[in-house]
Amino acid sequence: MAEMLVTEDQVVVHLAWWEKAAARRGDVRVPLAAVCRVTVEPDWWRALRGVHERGICMAGTLSIGARCHQAGKDFAAVGRDRPAVCVELRPPAPFRLLAVSARDDEEAAATARAIARAAPNIDTSTPCRQPLPVSGESEWAVAAERGMGQITLGTNSAR
Predict the structure, then answer these.
(1) Measuring CA to CA, which residue among 12, 36, 52, 30 is closest to residue 128?
(2) What pLDDT is attached to residue 71?
């Protein structure tokens, strides 16, 4: 079973041999400086975002590998009936989120605390994961902040 570990300057998702084969990749390593938020998701399937891109995904059972969405890619190694530790990442990390199942709630909480303590630039403004941006919304938000009356997105325009 995959586990999330903290080394001196990295978060490592250590995969078992069969998970490496399923994900078609080795262990995942990201710098601690890229970690922006750590949360625990009690419902493993809620940690999954986007569509399965590479690896293995068995609906209702497990997901191991890369998942693609409009904001980039996530890496998941989650399984049924286990909480997931979710680590949100900043660029230039290769993934936007790492989601790894823990054996139980206590292990998930301990792992999340260890990562949060070790990460130098953790965002503690909210205990919840942030939603994915929706295509086109960021342009609307900038226009609204600047008080612009009209903005054109693609072929549609708002007045």
Answers:
(1) 36
(2) 87
Long-range contacts of 60-67 (CB under 8 A, 24+ apart): 64/2, 64/15, 64/19, 64/22, 64/23, 65/22, 65/23, 65/24, 65/25, 66/23, 66/25, 66/95
Q: pTM of the entire structure?
A: 0.80
**E-state strands within 22-132:** 28-31, 35-41, 51-58, 62-69, 72-79, 84-89, 97-101
Residues written for the chain: 159
**Arithmetic mean of pLDDT, 71-86:** 94
> Is the model's pLDDT at 76 over the cut of 60?
yes
Spell out a b/e string for 17-44, using b for 16 or more CB atoms within 10 Å of the CB, else e. eebeebbebeebebebebbbbbbbbeeb
Residue type, 115: I
How many Å apart are CA 97 and CA 124, to the nearest integer?
Answer: 16
Give yes or no for a contact between 6 and 114, defined as CB atoms under 8 angstroms apart: yes
Express each pLDDT in 111-128 by its tens digit.
999 999 999 888 877 777
Rg (CA), the chain: 17
